Amino acid sequence: MLPIGNGRVFWYATRNCPAGEQDRPGERKPLLHRKPLLHRLFHNWRAPIEQLIEATDEAAILRNDILDRRPVRHWGSGRVTLLGDAAHPPTPNLGQGACQALEDALILARCLGSARECVVARRAYEAYRMKRSAVIIEQSYLFGRIGQWENPLLCSLRDALTPLAFATVLPRQFAAYARAPSVGEARGGAGLELRRPTAHREGKT
Ligand SMILES: Cc1cc2nc3c(=O)[nH]c(=O)nc-3n(C[C@H](O)[C@H](O)[C@H](O)COP(=O)(O)OP(=O)(O)OC[C@H]3O[C@@H](n4cnc5c(N)ncnc54)[C@H](O)[C@@H]3O)c2cc1C
To answer: Cα–Cα distance between 105 and 116 in angstroms, integer?
Structure first.
């Protein structure tokens, strides 16, 4: 449950179920059943979860599978490159997908402003962004996997350790995600080299 301003919140819930059950546009039946299903799943959960579901307009509830893609090492060639989810789609567990797309845009703009050749700028942008976005994909996937455990013993362990993790290591981890690239870094400083691309590398997933 996340505040998005003007007294409104964005919320999401996950559950393990077979792939491919998402609602499709035009299917009225599933739409009518989203809220009762959520009420069933979250009956007697801690307040204000049930009130939150009740206060939500049924048509505003989206239901989709969660998918990501393993990091790839080839985002484009020549004057073409990708950014955002097209380049590095993470699961939503860390809430970083859109943040990473914004970072891409920032770095790409700075590379284009710094390099003499636009092709060089694109390859520099890719080199700069690949590692960080790959780390986010892997960590987000890991968080999701842990959240999807079904073994009661593992679930008890996870539930017992989660408050401890939030009190110790996780704030440092989240602070690292929030650290935006500095102007110096994006202008050819640490980690960013503006040089001619070497031989074209075939994409490997
Ligand atoms: C449940 C959920 C919660 C999330 N929570 C967060 C969060 O808290 N924080 C966060 O940072 N991120 C979050 N994300 C991730 C975030 O929404 C995405 O990473 C982000 O929207 C990616 O932006 P994008 O511009 O790359 O792609 P998109 O937002 O998918 O934009 C691509 C656009 O291109 C359009 N398009 C596609 N094909 C074509 C075509 N052929 N021609 C023309 N247009 C086309 C699409 O309609 C779409 O509008 C969440 C995602 C989900 C699913």
So the answer is: 18
